[in-house]
Amino acid sequence: MVSKGSTHDVCNYNTLLNGYCKMERVDEAMQVFDEMLREGLAPTVVTYNTLIKGLCLVGRPWAAHQLFGNISTCGLTPTIITYSTLIDGFCEQGNLYEGWALFQEMQKSAVKPNLVVYTILIDGMCKCGKLKDAKVLFSRLTVEGFQPDVHTYTVLIGGVCKEGYLIEALKLFRKMEEDGCTPNACSYNVIIQGFLQHKDTSTAMQLICEMVNRGFSTDAATRTMLLDLPTNDGSPALKNLSGLCDNHQDVKVK
């Protein structure tokens, strides 16, 4: 039988596991975990959360799910971090079905979903092309007592842009600020990339001007898209966009 052992020893093992997992050396982390059990030390929920995160990081959510099943067996209770990490792990692999199943399990447990979990699922739905479901879940947030934050809005805006609904994306972007949620650099880059991807350089230029005036800068992905724009069509929008990038070091295309 595994005993509780020294709290100090367990903390040392948890630190070692965390180090291996951050370096994506999860097989070595699992070997350390096995050694921990052989030493008669009882894993804590932190131990399991660390390993679950490490396994999800390297694209092995099913292995993480097996560990998840051991938590209750050991007399421990999964935390919000346990659930959110595993749901994210499945969604990142495109397995929305399992992510949703865990979400439903949460709703029946003592650990209720928080805004982070909702945002993970909305993101997963958008990436899987289930924009309608993502919008339905987004609309449930206020009913459940949550106020969407900038990350939640940005995720949905990205999904709307991906499907080519640019007017809707811009309305949502404006609504975000109307609701008291100020857009950040990531929000601007996501919507600008959406307009550039769908060849609306005029609106992209306006948003870049707005972003620069707020002190934000373009990210690498946006700069790459700007580099790929045709420069010989003589359009005023493109000329102005080029001048803007030349005059502001933060957004200068290198």
From TrEMBL:
Record has NAD as a keyword: no
Superkingdom: Eukaryota
Keywords, ordered alphabetically: Repeat
Pfam families registered for this protein in UniProt: PPR_2
UniProt repeat feature PPR, residue ranges: 9-43, 44-78, 79-113, 114-148, 149-183, 184-218
Keyword Repeat: yes
NCBIfam families reported for this sequence: PPR
Family: Belongs to the PPR family. P subfamily.
PANTHER family in UniProt: PENTATRICOPEPTIDE REPEAT-CONTAINING PROTEIN 3, MITOCHONDRIAL
Name of the protein in question: Pentacotripeptide-repeat region of PRORP domain-containing protein
Organism: Salix viminalis (Common osier)
